[in-house]
Amino acid sequence: MRFLVRLIGSLLVSVRFLLRLIGSLVVTVAVVFAVGDIARSLADEATRLVSVTEALAMMDIRFDPSGFDGATTRMIVAEVGRWSVSIAAGIAGLVLVFAGRERKMRHRLVR
């Protein structure tokens, strides 16, 4: 029984570590795109944010809403494609980092 408890505990630690690692990498991507957005905005003297569709096109990945079944799914994919990469990746990364944090155990003092 102790072995099973230790195994489950170590798996939870590994999952938390992976969530924090992936979240940190996604936040790093957000920072890279934010720096690029700032540089582009300063050069053009106008605010310009890279959308998800443009970022995926830079990486030679097709993000075409017409390839999905269902009108609602196509509408959602088209909307997400218009979002700013730096903001969307930053929020997603912070959510993953927050999900991977350790839970604080509150110990009550019983007298």
Description:
The radius of gyration is 20 Å and the shape is elongated. The mean pLDDT is about 85. The protein starts with a helix and ends in a 12-residue tail after the last helix. About 70% of the residues lie in helices and about 0% in strands. It has about 110 residues and is mainly alpha-helical.
Topology:
Layout: H1 2-44, H2 52-58, H3 71-82, H4 85-99
Helix pairs in contact: 1-4
What is this entry, summarized?
This protein is mainly α. It is 69% helix and 0% strand. Helix 1 (2-44) runs antiparallel to helix 4.
Instruction: Tell me the Rg in angstroms.
Output: 20 Å
The helix-and-strand class reads mainly alpha
The string of secondary-structure elements, in order, is HHHH
Number of strands: 0
Unreliable stretches: none
Query: Strand-residue fraction?
Result: under 5%
Coarse shape: elongated
Identify the quaternary structure here. Answer: single chain
Q: Profile the largest sheet.
A: none
From the N-terminal CA to the C-terminal CA, the straight-line distance is 30 Å
Contiguous helical run count: 4
Overall pLDDT metric:
85
> Helicity range of the residues?
55-70%
Characteristic terms for this protein:
mainly alpha; 69% helix
